[in-house]
Amino acid sequence: MCRRRNKTALESEKEEVSSEVESEAEVGEASGAESEGSDTQEDQGEANMNVFITVCSEEGGETIELPTDEDGNLTLSSLESQFSGASGLSYRPEDDEELVSVACSEGCLYPPDEGWEAYIFVCDFPRDSKRKQDDDSEENESKTNKRIRSESSDGDSETIDLIVLGLPYSTTDAELKKEFEEYGEVKMAEVKKDNQGKSKGFGFVRFADYESQLKVVNKRLLVGGRHIEIKFPKQFSTKIFIGRMKEEMTNDDLSEYFGKYGEITDVYVPRPFKGIGYVTFENPLAVQTILA
DNA sequence: GTTGAGCGTT
User: Fold this and answer.
1) Nearest alpha-carbon partner for A274 in A20, A32, A1, A10
2) CA separation for the pair A149, A253 (Å, rounded)
């Protein structure tokens, strides 16, 4: 994506370990999917912390928390996939001060000295033509969404139940549904409860359309003062492991080859080269079809 | 009457 530095030796070592775990892959084939952010490996070496950026399209509006990339930066494209038409970010150092623009170069946004977590960020739009994030359903639809739609010849744009972690114990089904209707039509929203009818603090949400799902999956929201996480359920994973790669294979080659299965969000080939790589998709169904 | 990582059926 947009790396300012190279992976540390420590990080590369970790990747190596995971290659041994899943090393039965044939050339050019994918083996073993893993869901992100959990389980065996890929736990932070140091700079790989899970930083979220609180973003809204206009001050005081609904906020969404976008995850940074491995280097703690944010790509313009991932901002744009969330807020279509956004060209950058700004923040207000103090309540009565002017907006300050976030450093941006080569399609990559860099955190202010105080860090991403110090502020709430507002999207910049070219020549002040503000767009709300719910407007991108038809005429303002983002390029990435259009691409996904054209790629989804069969079933790779269906919605699935998303798991919602970290809910306040007081949140009801109706409140959960209402919370997500900000992002699209909600087909189902359910808080899991125990025998006594008490919330277990998590639930499931199903959107009517894929675009709405894209808006929140793998992101965080603020509900009742708590950060709730929206993820694909365990059995769905978005990342595949590529074994026995040829050295001359570039990230672009991988993108091109695996691009036919769906929108790719990340391609990572550890350097120095070890014959392995990872491709992460936006949609887990892409992984399903590859591994099928 | 409490809790705070996780993975759901009925």
Assistant:
1) A20
2) 22
Do A15 and A274 meet the contact criterion of CB atoms below 8 Å apart? Answer: yes
pLDDT band with cut points at 50, 70 and 90 for residue A152:
very low
Q: Which helix (H) or strand (E) holds A254?
A: helix A251-258
pLDDT digits (tens, 9 = 90+) for A184-197: 999 999 999 999 99
Q: Which nucleotide is nearest to A161 (CA to C1')?
A: B8
Size of chain A in residues: 292
Taking the C-alpha atoms of residue A31 and residue A57, their distance in angstroms, rounded to an integer, is 39
pTM of the model: 0.71
What pLDDT is recorded for position A1? 55
Superfamily of domain A161-231: RRM (RNA recognition motif) domain (3.30.70.330)
Pairing of strands A121-124, A52-56: parallel
Residue with tokens 């700004």: A90
Nearest-CA residue relative to C1' of B4: A166
Q: Does the CB of A52 sit below 7 A from strand B?
A: no
A169 touches strand B (CB under 7 A): yes
Give the right CATH number for A131-137+237-291 from 3.40.50.300, 3.30.70.330, 2.160.10.10, 3.40.470.10: 3.30.70.330
Place of tokens 């309540």: A95
Is residue A92 a contact partner of residue A119, using CB atoms and an 8 Å limit?
A: yes
Q: Which nucleotides of B are covered by protein (CB under 7 A)?
A: 3-10
Query: Within 7 Å: CB of A202 and strand B?
Result: yes
Q: What is the pLDDT of residue A93?
A: 95
One-character DSSP codes across A109-121: EE--TT-GGG--E
Cα A109 to Cα A88: distance, rounded to the nearest angstrom: 8
Characterize the bridge pairing of strands A30-34 and A186-193: unpaired
